[in-house]
Task: structure prediction
Amino acid sequence: MGYENGLGMVKTSASGIVAGTYNGTKQNESLNIPVAKYSKRRLMAIPLLITTDVISFCVSIIVAFLIRVNFLPLIFNSLPGTSWEFVSALWWLPILGCMFFIFEKAYSRRISFWQEAGQIVKTTTLTFLAAASFVFLTKQGDENSRTLVLLAWIFSLFLVPVLRYFSKKLLFKAHIWERPVIILGAGETGKLILNAFYREPVIGYKPIGFLDDDVNKQKYPPELPSGDKVPVLGSFDDAEVIIEKSHVHDVIVAVPGLTGNKLVKLVNKLQRKTYNLLVVPDLFDMAMEGVEVQHLFTERTLVLKLKNNLNDRFNLAIKTLFDLIVSLVLFIALIPFMIILAIAIKIDSRGTVFFSDTRIGKDGADFKCLKFRTMYPDADKILKQYLATNALARQQWEKYAKLKNYDPRVTRVGAFLRRFSLDELPQILNVIKGDMSLVGPRPYLPREKENMPGREDILITRPGITGLWQVSGRNDVEFNERLRFDSWYVRNWSLWLDITILIRTVAVVLRGKGAY
Result:
């Protein structure tokens, strides 16, 4: 935990039923409440993170110098000479970067890795733009290498977020970055938050317990993927007593089903007892990317400003340009590999190398989606016969529109291609042609359109080779859940979201999980 000696225990009494380790205690009996003993080491968190970033920038500059000296002259003979003096001349660059991070409050925010990585990329880019502008305006071009600055920026885009990530993981294990938190609400929302903190320790929150009025949840508290249970310490009425006695400074209110007035009263009551109070509103599936929080001061009204990024022509142009450039580079690089796959398909079974199928594209228009052929030519006949004699397979087909474990239609080479999603490589041509995007909603079949009521927003953009559904379970995700993922993607699109999905897709594909 984020305290020196783990959890101390204090006995107190409160109304309602409390289950630290539930034993059926009744009202007004003494309760065991975990006490957070914050270590003084937690004060080292920000200085250590700043030190990590300074090291990241320094390593970026040194690596850039080594590339500039040892490799670039082999390609560009006309490059002027350079020396370590150019490296030492940039001593102020790491300091400038950390100042920008401090201004952006990067060392106090507790967010997920990919969200933080996006902010780091923006801030780092701004740092190097400011550095380049400073060098230009002060006419120090002879004392600083522009190539060195450019290369250092490129390497810092990778090194700063990665080293920050591992630094936070180490600090969390050392109980320096860790902060104890109590979650109000042991329902599905509370469990989602618990699992999120478990999966991403870089956020730094360590739940020590829940509060909930439901007696069943007190008897059967939420469980971590590791099997450890997080106790339900009491009811909502006990909140003030438990927060005060536990010395916890951070509380999360995860009761989206609570009515507006009750939620406001609960928040106002708890706010004076906490340093940080996080509220999870009942706004699931609403757009979150670029949300601006505003308020009408005299009316005491909170206002959320939402944007539809894919309705903006500039954003659409950026997405299209990104797709075109990346897909062209990938296609040229993968031509030899795709030729090898084509030969393997031809040798393995009779039939064409490629398979094209009609899919729903942008604005509902049909297009021909390209793939490497992974099935036998008479696949429809094989499927019909198989489903007629196999009830379990028929249930899987109705639920997932796929066959898990075994599909008699798939060839030997086809099974390999599907496992690593290599059958979808020809879709790069669909991207170049303009029918598809690198990242987007799943390309749905025309017959699936009747099962998409209320999700028509999916069709406002081009379908993608990969997407949020791909990195969230692939074919293990049920059809309705895929629709929900795709709809969320469309409402929350950003270029950084596309980049993160592409990076995560590589990891998912290499694991081969959820592919069949």
Residues 1-30 have pLDDT under 50 and may be disordered. The longest strand covers residues 3-13.
